[in-house]
Design goal:
Layout: E1 4-9, H1 15-26, E2 30-31, H2 33-39, H3 45-55, E3 60-63, H4 67-70, E4 77-83, H5 86-97, H6 101-123, E5 135-138, H7 139-142, H8 144-157
Helix pairs in contact: 1-8, 5-6
């Protein structure tokens, strides 16, 4: 199976670390906003969707960008949503960005709002709705360090890998 993994996430959940570990375990490239925008010819969502569809012709991991919705009709796509408790996310942002608490909290809220608005604007759906994903990972409960292993165990059991 030419597995394509999409990973939507709340800001500060550690999803990029999970994607990196999955990338190493599965030998798949990870594509994020910066990469996708670099590959775009124009500046519209249709241009972005086209790049995502092209990337998904080969096995890969795509972070965000409404990829779960753009690729929803493909049987080889597995959609993951990564969440975590707000306080854990704030603490992670404080460490990563070296920010004071209030600035990290503001950054988190602004980022989450922007992601939610972007998703709704382009899909008409609620960002984070469990019905849009095959698996939900809560890094507060599961621990970032365990999530890639959980996903791999599932993939092995389902014989995806």
């Amino acid at each position: 199976m030419k597995l394509v993994i999409t990973m939507s996430r709340r800001y500060g959940t550690g999803a990029s670390l999970i994607a990196k570990e999955l990338s190493e375990k599965l030998d798949l490239p990870v594509y994020d906003k910066a990469y996708i925008e670099h590959e775009m010819e124009g500046q519209t969502f249709a241009d972005e969707a086209e790049v995502i569809k092209e990337l998904a012709e080969q096995p890969c991991i795509i972070l965000g960008r409404c990829a779960s919705e753009i690729l929803k009709d493909r049987a080889n796509v597995f959609n993951i949503y990564v969440s975590a408790a707000k306080e854990d996310r704030i603490q992670r942002i404080i460490k990563k960005e070296s920010l004071p608490y209030e600035e990290a909290k503001t950054m988190l809220e602004k980022n989450d709002r922007a992601r939610s608005d972007y998703y709704y604007e382009h899909t008409g759906k609620v960002w984070g709705d469990v019905n849009n994903y095959n698996m939900i990972l809560d890094t507060t409960t599961l621990g970032i360090e365990n999530c890639a292993g959980i996903v791999m165990k599932y993939f092995e059991r389902m014989e995806y890998v």
